[in-house]
Amino acid sequence: MKIIFLDFDGVLHKENSTPAQYFSRAFLLEELLQTNPCKIVVSSSWQFSKEYPEMLKKMPAILFQSIKGTTQSSYNGDASRLKEINHYLEKNCLNDIDWIALDDRAEKFPPNFSKLICCESSKGITKKQISILKQWLNH
Q1: Which three-class secondary structure state does DSSP give residue 93?
Q2: In total, how many domains does the chain have?
């Protein structure tokens, strides 16, 4: 089993998108998941929003069905997203699981962190990140 820890803003749509633009880049990830299924854990600040359940309903079906949970914790400071992910892995006894983070905030991870596929905030996920993700899923 492999897990993708998924951020939303700057990944599934460009940062500062309007509600009409939400998930505008999600089709790329959805296409990949059709032939390369895996589990997704949301590691986005969206999980703490009261609108989060409604936003999930707007997500493409295959992507929505792949979501198996949220990290349910938030950290500040250096490598804050990695701390959040590590907490989830420890809490769920998944320390030996193969995982990767799909995020647009490199500063939330250690420098040159090998388990991060970083997207550009102004674009969201592109075919470049999908290609890297596909290689990881098939390895």
Answers
A1: coil
A2: 1
Containing H/E element for 85?
Answer: helix 80-91
Tokens 């983070």 -> residue: 101
- Among 105, 134, 110, CA closest to 9: 105
Residues 108 and 58: their CA atoms lie apart, in Å, by 27
CA 117 distance to own-chain centroid: 9
- The reported pTM is 0.95
The CATH number of whichever domain residue 68 belongs to comes to 3.40.50.1000
Hey, which bits of 27-73 come out as E strands? 39-42, 67-70
- Domain that includes residue 109, residue range: 2-137
* Gap between the Cα atoms of 132 and 45, Å rounded: 24
Spell out the alpha helix ranges (H) of the chain.
26-35, 52-56, 61-66, 80-91, 127-137
pLDDT tens track for 1-38:
899 999 999 999 999 999 899 999 999 999 999 999 99
